[in-house]
Structures are given as structure tokens and as C-alpha cells.
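thought: fold this chain, then report.
action: predict
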Amino acid sequence: MNILLLSMPDSFEHMPASSVRVPNGALTSLAGNVDAHHRVAVADLILVQGRVRETVTRLVHEFQPAVVGLSVMTFQRKTAFEIIDLVRSLRPEVKVVVGGYDPSLASETYLGNAHGVVDFIVRGEGELTFRELLRAIENGTPYDAIKGLSFRTGDTFVHNPDRPISSLDDGSIRLPDRSARVLSGYTMLGRQMDVIETSRGCTFDCSFCSIIEMRGRNINKFSFDRVLADIRDARDHGARALFIVDDNLTLNVKRFAALCQAIIDAGLNTIDYTVQGMTSAFADHGETLGPLMRKAGFRYVFLGIENILEDDLSFLHAASKNTKHEAGKRAGNAAVTAIEHLHRNKMYVIGGLIVGNPEDTRETIEANLEFARRFVDWPYIQHPTPYPRTPMTKDLAARGLITSDRVEEYDGTTSVVKCENLTNEEIEYLRWSAERWMKSRHMWALIKHDPFFMARNIWRIFAFHFRGSTLRTFLRLEDEQVAFKRYRGIRAAERNYV
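observation:
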């Protein structure tokens, strides 16, 4: 069968297209785990945000797919339905499959929607479920024995039992098929970009996170042989920068250190690596882990700081992973110590912070913004967002703090939750006003790393971060709130992709 797999064009607004475009690793993993006789095309529509309709139309005509699969996050749901409508108009007989966080955790929104267009929902990890589904479609056999699958029958849906989480170490999940990609342009600051994973899952219970809702509190790991083979495959397909997308690679610091050494021993340390991790791990082990990471090629670390105030960390259920330890005892917030270790080893910190929590005031938000100004290289500041089935969502709903049910706005930087003391627009303005200047400061490091790339793109990057602002704004001939309203209008218009 011909199979077309699509990721949505909707993007978080932190990074301009010229700087960072990261592939959807789940789709190439699906492509690598179907039976070999299928013809699979993977299209990351984030690469063609201004040409979504024409690209999907071209791909449907070119590949004549029997099955179209869509990977969907919550803020991409509206676009997903519009793309499904387009695909149906072009090829009415096609089977439509959706998967990812949103269909897995909010399957009810895909069952009786006005479109009535989804045939199957793949819940949770998709590789084995999708492989079995394709076999059933091809052979005309029943679907009711496929674990992890929901399927339409008439006007109703049948939900099969969940599929157990894959152990990953038994070889059942094969390498991704990167050759299935039919679009190009993945980039990390001028270097071709790809993603790999070494493990799946996390054992923490952060209130804002969908991971434990998706798969429970657990972690499973690939063997290092498999991980190194994945890195080589990405490199052989042109990647010179890799994002390790593990949910929490720093849960096991000894394993992470051994991975760094394995990368060095394999001669794969000429690649620029980015990883995400906990402040506590880097604070407690950074003295030995930092030099090893740098030697292995790690350049950026997404640090889950979450918040620097204890009350907010308590609300986020993130205190324990952001606590440093001395002599086996808790010794305060780990963020500064973690950052110092990373900076000492010439790595850059992408600082993940969440502001606008229920008890926040202007002063507590400003305290976090000031911390970001002082310590992080690239701010990644978000607002509490009511993703499906998370503990945070239940709490925010109970307090009546959710201000919007338009899920296309649930992108993390559009504030859809008010505080007890601030409106959602006031919260978003505080972040927007501060964050763009912080991002501009990092341009000097980018120029030093790749002057030719920055020479071609610096004005494009600058214009992206200051969308909504004009010369009048910089000359202070208009109130910054006017520029902020223009920015919000631009951001709203950007969400219309199809």
C-alpha cells in the first residue's frame, strides 16, 4: 500500500524557520517499522508553512495513498481537521489515521466532531499498533485484536485495550526510515538537523506534563548499539546537528555519562548535540558530567528550570527535580549551580521557565524574567496550558482560570490562563516584552559560531523576534502595548495554514 504520513505545520513561536526546524521523529519511526513492501512518504509540513494546501494536494496526487496518517499535538488539532478535510476532498476513499499526544489523550474530540472524518486512532506508542493496523487493512481482517487502536464502526468508535509500553531493549522497534522523507530543510542554525532517542518515559509527575498521562511513570531504554546506529544513520542522511528527544535522559546520570563516552569512542563527537535535562542532575553531577558532555559534542542543553520560586515549583509538582543535594541532603534550588557547570564547559543553556501560575503576581513573574536575563542564554518561557488530562488542567479548570477553549492557542506562549492577580493578556505581555530582547542578546554567540549563516539570516531572525514592532516602537513614539496587540494579531494570522 501507499502510505502518506504528515506532521502538522503549526509551530511553537520560539524559533524562526530560518534558524530551527526540527523533524518529527515519530513519523520516520513509524515508516521504519511497517512491513517492507509498503511505500511510505513522510512529510513534515512545518517545512512548508506558507504552502500547506498546495503541498498536501501535490503529495496526495503523486502518491495516491490508501492510508494517510497524521501526528497531532493539541494546538495542532484545528489544522489537522482542515488537512483531513482537504485529503478527503482529493481522495474520498482514503483511510485516515491519527496519533500522537492529542488523539491519545483526547480521543473523544476525534470521534463525533463535525467532520466525521477519522477512521482510526492509534493511542500511545504507535510503531507496533500501526504495523498491525496496516496488515489488517491490507488483508481485510478484523481490527478488534489490535491493542492500542480505536476504530470507527458506523457512527460509533470501538476502543481496544491499551498496548503495553514497549521495553525497547528487545529489538522490536526498528530504526527510523529517514529515506521516507519527501521534504527537506531541517536546520539548527545553519546545520542540517535530525532527532534521535535513547529512551522513552519519565518517572516524575510534573503537573503540566502529558508524558505520564500518555505512558505512566516509567522509563525504557534502547541499547547503546542501537543508539549509535541511529546516530550514524542520521549522520549518513546529512545531519550535522542532533536533538536527543528523550523525555528525561538525565534520570540516570551514569547511563548518560556512559552514552557520552560511547559517542566519543565511536568518533561521533563531531556532531552538535542538544539535550534536555533536569537542573538537579547537572547541579549534582556537573563537575564530572560537564567536561564529558562537551567532549562528546554537546552544545545546547534545554534545562527544565520551570520556575525559581518554591511556591510555583510546588504547584508545578517540579520541586524535587530542581533541588540540588549536598552530602545527601537537599541544598536549595539547583538552577544556578547547574547553569554554572554547563557554562564552565562552554555549553549554552536554553532556559525552560513557566510563568503565569495561579498565585503569580507581576513581581513573581518579573523575578523569573530577571533570572532568565542573568543566567540563561536562550529563554524558552511558557505559560500554564491546559493540555488534555494533565493534573494542571484539572486544577486550573476547578479554579475557573482557563480563559480560552480555542485549542489552536494552546501553544505554550499564548496565555490562555489567568492568575488570581493578572489577566492572561497581562501575563503574556510581560513575557513578550522581556523575552525578545533576551533572544537578541544570544545573536553574538551565533555570529561567533557561524558568521556566514548569521550574515545571511540575522535580519530575518531579528524581524521574527520583534514581530509587531516598528520604527515608531523603537523610537518610543508609540506605546509598547500597541506593538504587542499587533504581535498578537500576527500570531493569530499565522495559525491559518490551510
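thought: worth noting. Residues 279-296 form the longest helix (18 residues).
final: C-alpha cells above.
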